[in-house]
Design brief:
CATH class of the largest domain: Alpha Beta
Number of helices: 12
Strand order of the largest sheet: 3-2-1-6-8
Order of helices and strands: EHHEHHEHEEHEHHEHEHHH
Structural class: alpha/beta
Strand content: 5-15%
CATH topology of the largest domain: Rossmann fold
Radius of gyration: 19 Å
Shape: globular
Distance between the termini: 47 Å
């Protein structure tokens, strides 16, 4: 028998879905999924963050219903085979890697870690907007500076645990909602929004990139300018 091919999949943390919903861009997901030709997954913990908790709060109920519709339409699917032992091990590693005064810092949430562990197991990419986890995976040497800037206190890293965590996650591809929005623009999904103005395309690109940033995607102004140049060339 021929070897089984790995499943083509993309895992979403809660942040990118929230960013797209709040930016009124969640409608691009069905067409992006068709272009991708694979599964769009969320894990059970991410579903709790996106639906089960917010649906009990009036302010967030409609956003929860929008996510429920994506699930009902089959655009998003709940991945049930989360490697729970690996997820627990990685959470413990990450959340014992940094100390502030006498306490360890809980820097990773369950949904994020379920997404990463599941993506790694399937050889899939993961969509995460939060800066901390991306930096921890991609460049952990910058974590101390980031956390000290965030908490305005001295942070003591445990380099052994840091490097063990980053080593476990080596090779996992992380993308952000702003990259998904950029792809949607590049393949023409947003053409109907280009106004009949001299700089219409630039106005649209600016609006979608900044909307994504202001709705939760961790991206710098310099990165936005770089993405903008790429999209408009």
């Amino acid at each position: 028998m021929p070897p089984t091919m790995p499943e083509k999949a993309l895992f979403f943390d809660s942040g990118p879905i929230i960013s797209l919903v709040m930016s009124r861009l969640d409608w691009i997901l069905p067409q992006l999924k068709t272009q991708f030709g694979g599964k769009f997954y969320i894990t059970p913990s991410v579903k709790r963050e996106l639906v089960e908790r917010p649906i009990t709060i009036k302010r967030f109920q409609f956003e929860a219903l929008q996510v429920l519709k994506l699930l009902g339409d089959g655009v998003l699917e709940v991945y049930q085979n989360v490697p729970t032992q690996k997820t627990t091990t990685l959470i413990n590693l990450a959340n014992n890697s940094f100390r502030m005064e006498s306490k360890t810092l809980d820097i990773i949430q369950e949904g994020e870690m379920e997404s990463l562990a599941s993506a790694q197991e399937l050889g899939a990419a993961v969509v995460i907007d939060e800066r901390t986890l991306r930096l921890f995976v991609e460049n952990n040497k910058e974590m101390k500076r980031l956390l000290e800037k965030r908490f305005h206190k001295n942070i003591i890293p445990d380099e052994t645990k840091m490097n063990q965590f980053s080593g476990e996650m080596k090779g996992v591809t992380i993308i952000r909602s702003i990259e998904l929005v950029s792809i949607a623009y590049k393949i023409g999904l947003l053409d109907a929004y280009i106004p009949e103005l001299k700089e219409g395309k630039e106005l649209l690109v600016n609006s979608i990139l900044w909307s994504t940033k202001y709705n939760g995607c961790a991206v710098s102004e310099d990165e936005i300018e770089e993405i903008k140049r790429f999209l408009l060339k």
